[in-house]
Write a structure and sequence with these properties.
Length: 325
């Protein structure tokens, strides 16, 4: 494994800098409160993983290794959609910090945060429509539907100790992988030469998206709040039962009791984390993430067109796993 691997941004640095500049212009609102709430999200920054995936995909499929203005705009739209979903997630999860700073609903209130999230979704839809590409509009629009479906699936399975790995995977697809999968597909659809099969890139995005979510869920168990930039163990506290816990359920009956009581006592979350760490469940969850990454790498290696360097798309796969280090 590539130790301390960074996201491959060297070949797309110019486009990434442009993206950060454009995002601030794209979220402009006449209402100062709404603008301040939306701007709060971008102060926290983040690694821009989704745009990095889109921009690298665009460069890989291009005959002359250039990224079109529409593909650049797609990367920006995707980041706005992702950011909008975080605002609503933070309200639902009652999360007070994100990437180490106060969340929008914590700085303002729930009502303003909901409106800020809706505003960002609306902005992304407007810019999406202006791409004037019906297939791309249909592909990206599905992401917002999937977000809602994922939240509902997560809500209906809250503190449900009968949750299966299939339930978990399906929810993870809707909440995380759909955005990456659909964005990768749309990037190919926007390429004028269209010499690649868009659905192959959809699958690449799907598998790295699922791996990303699994790694996130493992980090929620094994990391500190300071490392995460948000409270550790938040998934358990909110009744969101993830892969490490699902793999542990049949080994420790005490977990069923803690879940049934919805971790009501102060030390219940810590006790559940200790139980999970006593098993091989963390490793099993890591193995599951590795399976998805291997599938993603296989898909990219199968895209055999002369003079194409797929290393950056493969390095993204390694980066996702390397977040443990």
């Amino acid at each position: 494994m590539h130790q301390y691997l960074n996201l491959p941004i060297k070949s797309i640095k110019k486009e990434l800098n442009q993206l950060n500049n454009n995002l601030n212009k794209m979220i402009t609102a006449d209402n100062p409160i709404l603008y301040a709430a939306a701007e709060q999200l971008f102060i926290a920054g983040g690694k821009r993983i989704r745009p990095v995936i889109i921009l690298n995909t665009a460069k890989f499929i291009s005959l002359n290794k250039t990224i079109s203005t529409k593909q650049q705009r797609l990367a920006e739209i995707t980041e706005i959609i992702h950011t909008a979903s975080l605002v609503h997630d933070d309200i639902i999860d009652n999360c007070d910090t994100r990437r180490g700073i106060n969340t929008v609903h914590n700085v303002f209130n729930n009502k303003i945060a909901v409106l800020a999230g809706d505003f960002l979704f609306a902005q992304s839809s407007w810019y999406l429509a202006n791409l004037n590409h019906l297939s791309v509009v249909k592909t990206i629009s599905k992401i917002i539907t999937d977000f809602a479906e994922g939240e509902i699936k997560q809500g209906t399975k809250s503190f449900d100790n009968t949750i299966s790995l299939n339930d978990y995977t399906e929810k993870s697809f809707y909440k995380t992988a759909s955005l990456i999968a659909c964005s990768c597909k749309a990037t190919v659809l926007l390429d004028k030469t269209y010499s690649y099969e868009a659905n192959n890139f959809y699958l690449y995005g799907k598998h790295i998206g699922l791996a990303f979510q699994i790694v996130d869920d493992i980090l929620d168990i094994i990391s500190t709040s300071q490392e995460l930039g948000k409270p550790a163990g938040l998934d358990l506290k909110n009744g969101n039962l993830t892969a490490p816990l699902i793999f542990t359920l049949n080994k420790y009956k005490k977990l069923y009791t803690l879940i049934d009581k919805e971790f009501q006592f102060k030390n219940d979350i810590n006790e559940a984390i200790v139980i999970i760490k006593q098993t091989n469940s963390i490793q099993k969850a890591k193995d599951l993430a590795v399976e998805h990454i291997q599938l993603a790498i296989h898909i990219i290696k199968e895209q055999k067109i002369s003079n194409k360097n797929n290393i950056d798309l493969i390095l993204i796969c390694y980066y996702i796993l390397n977040r443990f280090n």
